[in-house]
Amino acid sequence: MQATRQQILEILRTHSEATVDDVVEELRQRRGDEITPVTVRHHLTRLQESGLVDAARMQHRESPGRPRHVYRLTERGIAYFPGNYQKLAAGLLDQIEKHLSQQGVNVILEGVAQQMAQEAGIAAGSIQDRLDSVIAYLNENGYEAYWETAEQGYILHTVNCPYHHISHDNDALCYMDMRLISALLGVIPRLQSRIAAGDNSCSYFIPCIVTE
């Protein structure tokens, strides 16, 4: 990411919210140069377009003067910064597998997949329409997915694994993804390749649905 935008995100993360003038002042202190409000507004606009910064809201001054625009990070912007989620998720999965049978683990992962599918709210429609909607949902969640036609069906590819730090040591989440895709599409897919196994993508064959 462009260095100035990275610094603006860091400022908003530190201060929860800030005006253009606040950002300008802190950037000048950090960098020792004379960055202008016009330049900062340009970067904030680009960050808004990327979904990392919320649309500016008006803040009225206590003293006379025009209201100020206040900016803050979106949920996506907050998630942009490194967290401890991978280690936490790995620890939770490890403890679940230690204390439950394989059937119990499968029930939990199936429940997670079903909950995610329900929250996605994929509308009914043709299989192509559903594939488009599923791809959009997966990409919003970091999978870098796409689909293509194949003989007697379709192939859905995900070229990024959001769980790659965990799935190399544990394939349970790979099969949770397969359950998720099945729930999203309403079709049972067939796993063809896995990133965790050294393949370029996780790929799922989606058979055509023939209706009478």
Overall description:
- This protein is elongated.
- The protein has 212 residues and is an alpha+beta fold.
- The chain folds into two domains: 3-79, Winged helix-like DNA-binding domain superfamily/Winged helix DNA-binding domain (Arc Repressor Mutant, subunit A); 85-207, Muramoyl-pentapeptide Carboxypeptidase, domain 2 (2-Layer Sandwich).
- It has helices spanning 3-15, 20-31, 37-49, 75-79, 85-99, 102-120, 127-140, 164-167, 172-185; strands at 17-19, 57-59, 68-72, 145-150, 153-158, 190-193, 202-207.
Question: Which labels suit this protein?
Answer:
about 210 residues; Arc Repressor Mutant, subunit A; Muramoyl-pentapeptide Carboxypeptidase, domain 2; three-stranded antiparallel β-sheet; 7 strands; elongated
Rg (C-alpha, Å): 22 Å
Number of domains: 2
Distance between the termini: 52 Å
Number of H/I helices: 9
Largest sheet: 4 strands, antiparallel
Low-confidence stretches: none
Helix content: 40-55%
* Beta-strand proportion: 15-25%
Q: How would you sum up the global shape?
A: elongated
Tell me how many strands there are. 7
Strand order, biggest sheet? Answer: 4-5-7-6
String of helices and strands: HEHHEEHHHHEEHHEE
Mean pLDDT: 86
* CATH fold descriptor of the largest domain: Muramoyl-pentapeptide Carboxypeptidase, domain 2
Based on helices, strands and strand pairing, what is the structural class?
A: alpha+beta
CATH architecture of the largest domain: 2-Layer Sandwich
Name of the top-level CATH class of the largest domain: Alpha Beta
